[in-house]
Amino acid sequence: MSDQFFKQSTVYAWQQETWQRLTLRFPNIGHGILLYGKKGAGKKDFALHFIAWLLCLDKKTTAACGVCASCQWLKSNTHPNYVHISTDDDKKQSNSQIKIDKVREIQPFVQQTVEGWRVVLIEPAETLNTAAANALLKTLEEPGERTIIVLLTDHLLKLPATIRSRLQRYALDRVSTEIAYHHVSQNSPDLDQQQIQLLLNLAYDMPLRALELAPQAWLQQRQKFIHDWLSLVKDKNGLVRHANTWTKALTFVELCQMMQYLVADMIALKLNQQIKNIDLNFSDILPYYDLNTLFKISHKLQDAKIYMQQNIQSQLMIDDLFVVLLHL
């Protein structure tokens, strides 16, 4: 993680305004900062860049110096004035939580008197359980001197209102279409205009998420999947064959992600809304499903992701999904 503090010479283009607001006001920026926005907005990149700057002993306009004692400590992951709190689960499963013990552990840290600034990073903040959130609230109400607590979240409203009200909030997902397009095109010059627009659609206009999606195996398999899906519902047979084919073609997570995007677009079409998969034609498959059935499939896909975290065999879940698609 330590290398990530210095991977950028400056924050992303869409984060410049927030950077200016924070750095120009420093040290009068409050002791609690909440950075929020959609996945792919670069919240953690911004946070680490900013934390390095906060702790730096020779701050530059756009970044930490990278050479002072503080920066060297960050690079070696041994900084005595920095604490990172996250869930115990490296995979950040949907049911993972930040528990009260972790929040209690930082209370002596934020109250001690030391030279320089102290920084705590908590992410993802929405995973704080009730007890941990209450403990954090007390810490926010009685902060130590020269202490800054930074929280990151994809879901602002999942944080308790009492926590939100005590934090300076900064949205990092305010990305213009032009800036998002430029960032993707600069970092993936081989993509044409339609491909970039498709990726941004699927990424909800978040450029970093779009770049993450670009190499995904399922992206090139969508049309073939619709073809097999149509064959399944038209012929009313071949369920096992199709399920086995896609078990081999994609991982369960990839298959679920692809299906979620496709089903969401079919729901959008039923509601006369714009779709994200602008390069696909749903006209043949759409008549086989009503809106209620599509919502049921969508919920089934959400449930499948939860079951996967419980170590249920993926083959069984894929078979079950294809039964749902067959609309039996």
From TrEMBL:
Provide the E.C. number(s) assigned to this enzyme: 2.7.7.7
Where are the bilayer-spanning segments? none
- List UniProt keywords, sorted A-Z: DNA-directed DNA polymerase, Nucleotidyltransferase, Transferase
A GO molecular function assigned to this protein is: DNA-directed DNA polymerase activity
Q: Which InterPro entries match?
A: DNA_Rep/Repair_Clamp_Loader, P-loop_NTPase
Q: What protein is this chain from?
A: DNA-directed DNA polymerase
Catalytic activity reads:
DNA(n) + a 2'-deoxyribonucleoside 5'-triphosphate = DNA(n+1) + diphosphate
A cellular component term, taken from the record's GO annotations: DNA polymerase III complex
Q: Which domain of life is it from?
A: Bacteria
**Membrane as UniProt keyword:** no
GO terms classed as biological process: DNA-templated DNA replication
Could you confirm whether the keyword Nucleotide-binding appears in this record?
A: no
